[in-house]
Amino acid sequence: MTHRFPIKEIALQAGLSTATVDRVLNRRPNVSPQTHRRVHDAIEELGRQEGQLAAKGRRLFIDVVMEAPARFSREVQLASEDVQKQLAPAALRTRFSIAETMTSATCAATLDRIRKRGSHGVCLKARDTPELRSAISRLTDKRIPVVTMFTDITGSQKLAYAGLSNQNAGKTAAYLMLKQLGPADRVVLTILSQLAFQGEEERYDGFRSELGRSRPDIEVIDASGGGGLNTATERAVAAKIRSIPEIAGVYSMGGGNQAVLKVLESAGKTPSVFVAHDLDEDNLELLRQEKLTFVLHHDLRSDLRTAFRHIMAFHGLGAAPITSLSDIQIVTPVNIPMAFK
């Protein structure tokens, strides 16, 4: 494996020991394929960041830990690369620990490994559980700040939250849906990826409260728990709608919308309004096909910039952002932003 970086630099980027990196680089036995991949990815990332690291300023290693569908994680990684170039005087290096599904125990163990090897900060998208609150406390005790992103972890010792006001996002979804529904419409479907994601729970609470205030006659059927993954979401939705004759609207908070539409089409149900979140590649295609009515979008680059600036300010590099909340953009099939065309 050709490279031009010191083993210590590769080890820091990969989050591995120098001895492990040495075994990989010298093709010694008893090294897993996953470890080979981590070292290879670290060398590629160091190459991409080499130009940035030539800039003057302090270097910060920031760990990004996320439980999220791959389509969303890819968008976050691309956004991170863009934002890092903008944040002089610091030269930021990001190390990603990502899985489509990650139990609280697995995520806590990942955070503990980061605590032991060291980090300048952690950006975290994870479930709101006591186990993770404890892991955040342990990081904080080691002066490793944690910024929760996209979904918060309440009652934790995090430094800050960066993302939407999820309560307002849910209310916005209800407002848009009510403008499309008729007086005879009685049933809407809601879908969360994981009940333990606090941000999605806030969206759901905001949606229910706004819908109940204006149309208490509408029944909300919830089909959550698919993790935003198509196969699991398809099963969850199919089980819920089997005995429901009509569904007037859908509010999907966690993705898997191709699967949702597939199930509805198979069941002969055509909602008059479908509200989703995020301009990932799946939702963009569904918008272009006019299968989604509205997508509530927020700029991932803005969220990451906010999160990184909080960590920089913790280390004395600039001021913390005045606000950590990002704006909601309502996207329809006819106003898709130019950056996504």
Helix content: 40-55%
Q: Which residue ranges are poorly predicted, with pLDDT under 50 across at least 5 consecutive positions?
A: 51-55
CA-atom Rg in angstroms: 22 Å
| Helix and strand run | HHHEHEHEHEEHEHEHEHEHEHEE
Second-tier CATH architecture of the largest domain:
3-Layer(aba) Sandwich
Descriptive report:
- With 341 residues, this protein is of the alpha/beta class.
- Helix 11 links the parallel strand 9 and strand 10.
- About 1% of the residues have low confidence.
- 45% of the residues lie in helices and 17% in strands.
- The chain folds into 3 domains: 50 residues, 434 Repressor (Amino-terminal Domain) (Orthogonal Bundle); 140 residues, Response regulator (Rossmann fold), CATH 3.40.50; 141 residues, Rossmann fold.
- The strands form 2 sheets. Strands 2-1-3-4-5-11 form a 6-stranded parallel sheet, with helices on both faces. A 6-stranded mixed sheet has the order 7-6-8-9-10-12, with helices on both faces.
- Helix 7 packs parallel to helix 8.
- The chain has 12 helices and 12 strands.
